[in-house]
Amino acid sequence: MTSLPLIPAAPDVPAARRAAMPPRHLADLDLAGRQALVTELGEPAFRAKQVSTHYFGRLVRDPAGMTDLPAATRDRLAGALLPTLLTPVRELACDDGATRKALWRLHDGSLVESVLMGYPDRVTVCISSQAGCGMACPFCATGQAGLTRNLSTAEIVDQAVYLAGVAASGAVAGSPPRLSHVVFMGMGEPLANYSRVTAAIRRLVAPAPDGLGLSQRHITVSTVGLVPAIRRLAGEDLSVTLALSLHAPDDELRDELVPVNQRWKVAEVLDAAWDYAARTGRRVSIEYAMIKDVNDQPWRADLLGRLLAGRLTHVNLIPLNPTPGSRWDASPKPVEREFVRRLRAAGVSTTVRDTRGREIDGACGQLAAAEDDDTDMPQEATA
Ligand code: SAH
Q: Is the per-residue pLDDT at 7 higher than 70?
């Protein structure tokens, strides 16, 4: 399998600065932290609430739009609290505009992506938690290039706030205007960036103006299965949905598909998942990419069924989205149907994930990969 360098350095950014974290942003801080900072800047504390109401309540990210603030105050606060974190490089739409993908360049030249998905009853954003990923799953585009760096809390939150603004502008026809769901299924391993991801979740669920006011139940954290971090997450006062990227029911195959399995085995990671379900009362999602002749055999469906039967869980089968240069393909539909049938026969709730965004390289890391292939072409700036 060819390895693609997915996260190119911007030509004007010296290598030494590439892994640098971005400047602080209001979304890095809770409301009390913002108030303390604003006071330090010599402004009255209530300004923190005013700016936060713009950002989280009205989804206004540009200080120029905060017209109820005196111009000098706006400049001072914008400099300290609202640095530009995400510069759109490309925005692509498909599914009649119901799916929109954004590719962002970060301050150090790293590229990350997010996806906005509109449904009749809800609006979901899929966001990234790291630039690149260190987990090296061989079927995942992001996994091929390794980790560039963790995203800051605000870089994570700002993806959701930006796309919530796009949804609020009515851009997603046939869907509610309000963002309701967030899934950590973009680039990166969220539990490998634990403190920033949990801080970001706190911003997403805090009521405005502290945060976006989403429901904890509407946030999904997807993980390869970092067992200590799953256990730690179960102890937080956050009942978010846990999705576990299992992809194989046996250690021999999972060691290859999800290399972190060499450290925490199937039995161990499922144990942690069931403890998470018990502590939070939330059904754990089991993610299983259907890969032709690799993990889609009837015996593997039966083994998976035995592991999951009677548990508080739901299986999401994901038709593999083949990455450029990959030797793997999606399972044929009849094979997929038989897999579903066997899981359901074992009493396990199972659905096949819809394949939103295929035409816009919706799978993990593929837009960033395409961007890398095109670096000598002029890029549309959509800022
Ligand atoms: N690191 C986290 C979240 C990122 S990916 C995790 O692994 O869970 C979100 C989901 O997409 C994971 O289940 C991942 O295994 C899956 N995925 C990655 N590449 C894929 C591909 N090419 N086709 C189908 N699913 C893929």
A: no
- Indicate the residue among 81, 101, 117 that finishes a domain: 81
* Reported confidence tier of residue 4, pLDDT bands at 50, 70, 90: very low
CA–centroid distance, 364 to ligand 1, in Å, is: 6
| pTM, two decimal places | 0.90
Pick the range with the lowest mean pLDDT from 42-51, 167-176, 298-307: 167-176
Does residue 133 have an active-site annotation?
Answer: no
Instruction: Output the CA 133–ligand 1 centroid distance in Å.
Output: 11
Q: What is the pLDDT of residues 59-69, one digit of tens each?
A: 998 888 899 99
Which CATH number characterizes residue 258's domain? 3.20.20.70
Q: Which whole-number Å values give the CA distances from 14 to 11, 67, 373, in the listed order? A: 8, 37, 21
DSSP 137-170: -TT-TGGGT-EEEEPPHHHHHHHHHHHHHHHHTT
Q: What is the pLDDT of the chain when averaged over all its residues? A: 88
Catalytic-residue membership of 113: yes
The pLDDT value given to residue 19? 65
Q: Choose, from 43, 91, 113, 155, the residue flagged as catalytic.
A: 113
Ligand 1 mutation target, pool 140, 189, 246, 355, most atoms within 8 A of CB: 140
Tell me whether residue 90 is in a domain.
Answer: yes
CA of 341 to the centre of ligand 1 (A): 23
Rounded Cα distance, 136 and 207, in Å? 36
- Show the domain range for 54: 25-81
Which position among 133, 137, 140, 364 bears the catalytic label? 364
**What are 218-231's pLDDT values in tens digits?**
999 999 999 999 99
What are the φ/ψ torsions at residue 125 (nearest 5 degrees)? -115, 140
Residue 71, domain CATH: 1.10.150.530
Nearest CA, atom 10, ligand 1: 185
Among 113, 96, 93, smallest CA distance to 104 is for: 113
Domains identified in the chain, total number: 2
Name the β-bridge partners of 219.
182
DSSP-assigned letters across all residues of 66-123:
-TTS-HHHHHHHHHHH-----EEEEEEEEGGGTEEEEEEE-TTS-EEEEEEEE-SS-E
Among protein residues, the one whose CA lies closest to atom 19 of ligand 1: 140
- Do 127 and 215 share a domain, yes or no? yes
Q: Which atom of ligand 1 is nearest to the CA of 188?
A: 1
